[in-house]
């Protein structure tokens, strides 16, 4: 019986470690907001010619499930760190799995704030609730970074 209890304890510990590792792979809302603020400042300082390619490919703009996206106010993707093939695509009419016009909500942010929607997590491949911090830059760009929420 002692051997069974020991085995059970090992299994429970392994499961706990697995859940802790999965939790660490997800970024927090605070980290999303901080990256969005850094990205907005970078875009303002360096301009779109430097910033957009960096957001698409630069390692400093990707952290676990965090990445930078930028839309113009018409809803066209100008940078997208998770899917560069979206760049140049007008997504204003895009809806999430719940029917929310989330790009319209993103570009409607006038100064800065949070937008909630459902989006495919690049790590899991599943549609998950997401909250993105969006900042308007130069009254022509909506710069955002989102974190998946549980």
Question: Can you characterise this structure?
Answer:
Helix 2 runs antiparallel to helix 3. The chain is 39% helix and 27% strand. The protein contains 4 helices and 6 strands, in the order H-H-H-E-E-E-H-E-E-E. A hairpin with a 3-residue loop joins strand 5 and strand 6. Strands 1, 2, 3, 4, 5 and 6 form a 6-stranded antiparallel sheet that branches. By secondary structure, it is an alpha+beta fold.
β-strand percent reads: 25-35%
Shape estimate = globular
Q: What pattern of helices and strands is seen along the backbone?
A: HHHEEEHEEE
CATH topology: Beta-Lactamase
Brief overview:
The chain is α+β, with helices and mostly antiparallel strands and 150 residues long. The protein has four helices and six strands.
Which terms summarize this structure?
150 residues; globular; Beta-Lactamase; 27% strand; alpha+beta; single chain; six-stranded antiparallel sheet
Q: What's the SSE blueprint?
A:
Blueprint: H1 2-25, H2 29-46, H3 48-57, E1 62-63, E2 66-72, E3 77-80, H4 102-107, E4 112-120, E5 127-137, E6 141-148
Antiparallel strand pairs: 1-2, 2-3, 2-6, 4-5, 5-6
Helix pairs in contact: 2-3
């Amino acid at each position: 019986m002692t051997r069974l209890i020991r085995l059970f304890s090992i299994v429970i510990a392994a499961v706990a470690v697995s859940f802790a590792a999965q939790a660490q792979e997800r970024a927090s809302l605070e980290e999303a907001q901080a990256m969005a603020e850094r990205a907005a400042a970078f875009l303002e300082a360096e301009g779109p010619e430097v910033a957009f390619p960096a957001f698409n490919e630069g390692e400093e703009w990707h952290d676990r499930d965090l990445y930078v996206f930028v839309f113009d106010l018409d809803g066209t993707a100008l940078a997208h760190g998770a899917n560069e093939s979206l760049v140049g695509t007008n997504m204003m009419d895009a809806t999430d799995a719940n029917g929310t016009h989330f790009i319209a909500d993103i570009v409607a942010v006038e100064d800065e704030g949070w937008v909630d929607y459902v989006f495919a997590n690049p790590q899991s491949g599943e549609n998950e609730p997401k909250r993105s911090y969006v900042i308007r830059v130069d009254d022509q760009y909506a710069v955002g970074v989102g974190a998946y929420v549980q």
